[in-house]
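step: validate -> pass
step: tokenize input -> pass
step: predict -> running
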Amino acid sequence: MVFDKNHKEVKVGSWVKVLHIDPDFIMTFTSNEAEGIRTMLNQVLEVIEIAHGKALVNHQFNRYHGFNLALDSEEMELVDNSC
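step: predict -> pass
step: emit ->
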């Protein structure tokens, strides 16, 4: 099972707010890619998969480009699905 920063269970289909992305991780990308990844901060995204103890979310930047991000518990907060 995977939990958010408040110890609430996160499942596939849950919506989570991205609270943190490691700056060292972001620096491994080109400047354009890094800027796109930074835009994921504070976004509410749907969990598409649970793997290796992390919640995987996807953010589409446009019709052809997107990015998957695996979040640890402290990097996300569960959002009420009724919002």
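step: describe -> The mean pLDDT is 92.
step: cleanup -> pass
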